[in-house]
Write a structure and sequence with these properties.
By secondary structure, the protein is mainly alpha-helical. It is built from three helices and no strands. Helix 1 packs antiparallel against helix 2, helix 1 runs parallel beside helix 3 and helix 2 packs antiparallel against helix 3. It is rod-shaped, with a radius of gyration of 25 Å.
Length: 128
Amino acid sequence: MSTPYPPPAPWAPAPAVARRPTRTADVVVTSLLIAAHVTVFGAAAFFSLFYAMASDPCGSGTVCDTGKIGQAFFLTDAVGLVVMLAASTAAVLLMLRRRIAFWVPLVGIAAQVGLVALSFGLLGQVVP
């Protein structure tokens, strides 16, 4: 039994691998959302400079837990930076693999807002 087609020549190019189409709208929206996430992180880091004002009522007999201020700084700045970098890296990797990626910066922004809310909760516990 023989096949009706001859075998391909060894110098013939390999057949093209089917790739997913590039989703231009997803790339644009994801890029804008990554920029928005960087902006949200920058605003949170800027406003964290004012966390020290939570200790204003301390002194003159008022005992305060100022360690909570350091924890609030850590949550907003260090953990927020890790969340931003992880979300941006994951979104870029998904875009390179031509997968839907716009949701990753949205989750990162929500996590950033959650971290700021947690840090405000810590700041509320500084003064009893």
